[in-house]
């Protein structure tokens, strides 16, 4: 392969519910078609994350208990993760990963647990209810429609400088109130979608990979990669 | 028996008779009727039994069947519940349907759904509980593994005198202090080394200090001789040990427990865990190892979930898959076949299958790509999901047959170039396929699950 990208799988051994690892498999699948080799490394508890070491990052969802532990540990990675995001590093965050990039979330026992505040959203809980089911959203800028399966107790509210990943066509979305789902900030894509998101919505995988390539190889023309056709899988 | 219980029991029994005689069914409705008339009926019905409750995510049905076989070597009268009747109503029906035992105190060996343990222990104090394992399974129903274990423990809390017989290789079963007496079983057949579980494994945090667990040896998922390098938490002392693992094929396994040789007519390491659990209950109830071996040899029908069907000369094995750990184990078991085979994946997403199909991405289909598989058929209502999963796993397009319609899947099976065919199907896809196979005369209607 001609190109190479280093991928951080943030807390891949703890934040890995609902097939979220499929996002790594899908990235690999499309990367191969773009002549790109991925080196994927799990970065977990008590391990360093250095912004300069990675070209792309993935942060999946986890169970309540694991997410509580990660909420503490991720504070040690806050500065470098923020640096990665602010320097246009492409990152995909799902469910718990989405929540932990924001200011805080309310845990299963009602306690307020910190995120890293790299993105401007926050997450509340709902009593004895989860948003569970198939969901469809539409991104107004690209016109792309995304399919997924949501399963979350958290209700997330976006900040002023975040755009939603899409507007809810059917399903609940971020909070069941404002019709938004997920978030986009610089090259960060957040969502509650399982399914996993990149296996059903290859266009997002393509956006992430092309952004990572352009950032790593600024003098190269990646229009061929950007033109990769993604057949429907769902 | 009180008048109310008497009336309730009579109503339930006669409805069972009616359903069974005229409708060839009746697994939970009689229980439902009886419970309506007397919500406390289990206290009356269960009072004269020594009860063993078997619960956990995977392996309940087979462990229950094997345990019944093992205990039959020593105890003549054992009541048990049929597959799928592991919730309160099904359990009440099971007791209603019991014949009065001739002599002595009879045993009841019950497979109980995790959340329904408390519905049994409210009325009956079991003699023993068996905990097989807790894995992610249809989390849209119960939530996470810790929630599921807590549901079991809520039930166990009402029976502090019962002995717990638990899978010692599963860290979660060593995570809470309990008043009960506990015996553990597990694998002890490898020299110690030091490594972590695969990244995509669930439940690898030390329950004591929340660091990542290491392993001296590991069977699959997060099960093995675990230890925490940070605080010293480790696998408890085992009462029953698998001391040697012998030859494994898709249809048989040889192994030794506590130095005694055993053979079971079914493949899969997960089934060795089921046999180990049945052995542990047998020894707990004073059945000799030789008698346990006889029981394992005698009883082959209990392995019905993996029956082999002749479909126009093809040797077709249908296997139910429902969660990632089970799926991984099935894929591993198929991989032990030394003959060439074709693969069929049938995916539905109805309630009984789990409405979220994301779990197929946690299954390690990639392990099959070392094998030369000449034909892969994908079908079912969610054929697009399973098709893309296998494409990503590396199944080449020219080997891949996409056939949503199950009727046509059966035709396709007869056309593959291998004699052996493995069909992995979710619950409702399996039922639909069996119906078609029955219509075509390859199996009799109503057999199996």
TrEMBL record, chain A:
<keyword id="KW-0573">Peptidoglycan synthesis</keyword>
<feature type="active site">
    <location>
        <position position="194"/>
    </location>
</feature>
<keyword id="KW-0961">Cell wall biogenesis/degradation</keyword>
<feature type="binding site">
    <location>
        <position position="130"/>
    </location>
    <ligand>
        <name>substrate</name>
    </ligand>
</feature>
<feature type="domain" description="CobB/CobQ-like glutamine amidotransferase">
    <location>
        <begin position="6"/>
        <end position="201"/>
    </location>
</feature>
<dbReference type="InterPro" id="IPR043702">
    <property type="entry name" value="Lipid_II_synth_GatD"/>
</dbReference>
<keyword id="KW-0315">Glutamine amidotransferase</keyword>
<dbReference type="InterPro" id="IPR011698">
    <property type="entry name" value="GATase_3"/>
</dbReference>
<feature type="active site" description="Nucleophile">
    <location>
        <position position="95"/>
    </location>
</feature>
<dbReference type="InterPro" id="IPR033949">
    <property type="entry name" value="CobQ_GATase1"/>
</dbReference>
<comment type="function">
    <text>The lipid II isoglutaminyl synthase complex catalyzes the formation of alpha-D-isoglutamine in the cell wall lipid II stem peptide. The GatD subunit catalyzes the hydrolysis of glutamine to glutamate and ammonia. The resulting ammonia molecule is channeled to the active site of MurT.</text>
</comment>
<comment type="pathway">
    <text>Cell wall biogenesis; peptidoglycan biosynthesis.</text>
</comment>
<dbReference type="InterPro" id="IPR029062">
    <property type="entry name" value="Class_I_gatase-like"/>
</dbReference>
<keyword id="KW-0436">Ligase</keyword>
<protein>
    <recommendedName>
        <fullName>Lipid II isoglutaminyl synthase (glutamine-hydrolyzing) subunit GatD</fullName>
        <ecNumber>6.3.5.13</ecNumber>
        <ecNumber>3.5.1.2</ecNumber>
    </recommendedName>
</protein>
<keyword id="KW-0133">Cell shape</keyword>
<keyword id="KW-0378">Hydrolase</keyword>
<dbReference type="Pfam" id="PF07685">
    <property type="entry name" value="GATase_3"/>
</dbReference>
<comment type="similarity">
    <text>Belongs to the CobB/CobQ family. GatD subfamily.</text>
</comment>
<comment type="subunit">
    <text>Forms a heterodimer with MurT.</text>
</comment>
TrEMBL record, chain B:
<dbReference type="Pfam" id="PF08353">
    <property type="entry name" value="MurT_C"/>
</dbReference>
<dbReference type="InterPro" id="IPR043703">
    <property type="entry name" value="Lipid_II_synth_MurT"/>
</dbReference>
<dbReference type="Pfam" id="PF08245">
    <property type="entry name" value="Mur_ligase_M"/>
</dbReference>
<comment type="subunit">
    <text>Forms a heterodimer with GatD.</text>
</comment>
<keyword id="KW-0133">Cell shape</keyword>
<comment type="pathway">
    <text>Cell wall biogenesis; peptidoglycan biosynthesis.</text>
</comment>
<dbReference type="InterPro" id="IPR013564">
    <property type="entry name" value="MurT_C"/>
</dbReference>
<feature type="binding site">
    <location>
        <position position="231"/>
    </location>
    <ligand>
        <name>Zn(2+)</name>
    </ligand>
</feature>
<keyword id="KW-0573">Peptidoglycan synthesis</keyword>
<feature type="binding site">
    <location>
        <position position="206"/>
    </location>
    <ligand>
        <name>Zn(2+)</name>
    </ligand>
</feature>
<keyword id="KW-0479">Metal-binding</keyword>
<protein>
    <recommendedName>
        <fullName>Lipid II isoglutaminyl synthase (glutamine-hydrolyzing) subunit MurT</fullName>
        <ecNumber>6.3.5.13</ecNumber>
    </recommendedName>
</protein>
<feature type="active site">
    <location>
        <position position="356"/>
    </location>
</feature>
<dbReference type="InterPro" id="IPR036565">
    <property type="entry name" value="Mur-like_cat_sf"/>
</dbReference>
<feature type="domain" description="Mur ligase central">
    <location>
        <begin position="54"/>
        <end position="281"/>
    </location>
</feature>
<keyword id="KW-0436">Ligase</keyword>
<keyword id="KW-0067">ATP-binding</keyword>
<dbReference type="GO" id="GO:0016874">
    <property type="term" value="F:ligase activity"/>
</dbReference>
<comment type="function">
    <text>The lipid II isoglutaminyl synthase complex catalyzes the formation of alpha-D-isoglutamine in the cell wall lipid II stem peptide. The MurT subunit catalyzes the ATP-dependent amidation of D-glutamate residue of lipid II, converting it to an isoglutamine residue.</text>
</comment>
<feature type="domain" description="Lipid II isoglutaminyl synthase (glutamine-hydrolyzing) subunit MurT C-terminal">
    <location>
        <begin position="320"/>
        <end position="430"/>
    </location>
</feature>
<comment type="similarity">
    <text>Belongs to the MurCDEF family. MurT subfamily.</text>
</comment>
<keyword id="KW-0862">Zinc</keyword>
